[in-house]
Design brief:
single chain, alpha/beta, Rossmann fold, UDP-galactose 4-epimerase, domain 1, 2 domains, seven-stranded parallel sheet, two-stranded parallel sheet, globular, NADP binding, Epimerase_deHydtase, carbohydrate metabolism, NADP, NAD(P)-bd_dom_sf
Length: 312
């Protein structure tokens, strides 16, 4: 049971879904959200009953904003998630320095820390096999590098202080409350918007690239469970399945009642992950986590929410 819960980045995509789920699961707990609103939207927190402060956790103001709040657990989701940012100093300062501040806060309050890592740390994997947490890392851009360094920092800090620090290595998360991300929202949402407007969905040639898409409700469940990990570690958070872009369009067609054919075009990127699939063995064995949503079920529920057929 958590009495005081701190969520950084709590007005963002995963953070807001997490805040509302925790509010429901722990109705007697106090939940405090810190978010600088640089890539978030207050509308994501409709129905949230806790406190929200505007705060950039990479600055010293974070220590003053929560000086009277003693968190039992910190869910650290605040970071620059735009993978196209090339300003290395900016990315590292916001992500890595911000995480260091959060760890110092945790040390002062003896808090458990659960933080957002990323499957991007694995790099461009050639062999099509599920990715295990302990495989070699090969970050290909500064965003992935910042997450890789955060993983290293977490391990070092945990060994030095005996704090429990647990990383959740998210794969391709999609679902409600991501619309504010615009062009950085999930591919599933982008394709939905194209098809909803009557356009053929555009994907890179020839649509056989595969991704591990995980529905945000599953990602949130795994994140909450991670706070109960037996020790400091990192867990993959995916569906455990690799789904082709062509199949995503097929499932969107089924959910929308449409029959669009894909429009293929050349990939413009030098670096592009052709294949991702999470090995979910570790989180299943240690925490008992099994995703509830297949890609087909997740897309159907998501489209039903977007279309107003069901409530979130």
């Amino acid at each position: 049971m958590f009495h005081n819960i701190l969520i950084t980045g709590g007005a963002g995509f995963i953070g807001s879904n997490l805040a509302l789920k925790l509010q429901k699961e722990y109705p007697n707990s106090k939940i405090l959200i810190l978010d600088d609103f640089s890539s978030a939207n207050f509308k994501n927190l409709k129905g949230f009953k806790g406190i929200v402060y505007s705060c950039d956790v990479s600055t010293d103001e974070v220590f003053f904003k929560i000086e009277d709040f003693k968190p039992d657990v910190i869910f650290h989701l605040a970071s620059i998630t735009d993978t196209t940012v090339t300003d290395q100093e900016y990315m590292m300062r916001r992500n890595v320095d911000g995480f260091k501040n959060v760890l110092e806060l945790a040390y002062d309050n003896e808090s458990i820390v659960v933080y957002a890592s990323s499957a991007s740390v694995y790099g461009n994997v050639r062999e099509k096999v599920p990715l295990k947490e302990d495989r070699e890392k090969s970050p290909e851009n500064v965003y992935a590098f910042s997450k890789y360094i955060m993983d290293n920092l977490a391990q070092e800090f945990a060994e030095k202080t005996s704090l429990k620090i647990v990383g959740v290595r998210y794969f391709n998360v999609y679902g409600p409350r991501e619309a504010h991300k615009g062009k950085f929202a999930s591919m599933i949402y982008q394709l939905y918007l194209q098809m909803k407007s009557g356009q053929r969905p555009r994907i890179f040639k020839w649509g056989e690239q595969k991704r591990d898409f995980v529905y945000v409700k599953d990602a949130v469940d795994a994140t909450i469970l991670a706070a109960k990990a037996p020790r400091s570690t990192v867990y993959n958070v995916g569906s455990g399945e690799a789904t082709s872009f062509n199949d995503v369009i097929k499932y969107l067609n089924q959910a929308l009642g449409t029959d669009f054919e894909p429009e293929y075009f050349d990939c413009p990127y030098d670096f592009y992950q052709e294949y991702t699939q999470a090995d979910m063995t570790k989180i299943k064995e240690e925490l008992g986590f099994v995703p509830r949503y297949s890609i087909q079920r997740g897309i159907k529920e998501y489209v039903d929410i977007l279309e107003g057929r069901i409530n979130e």
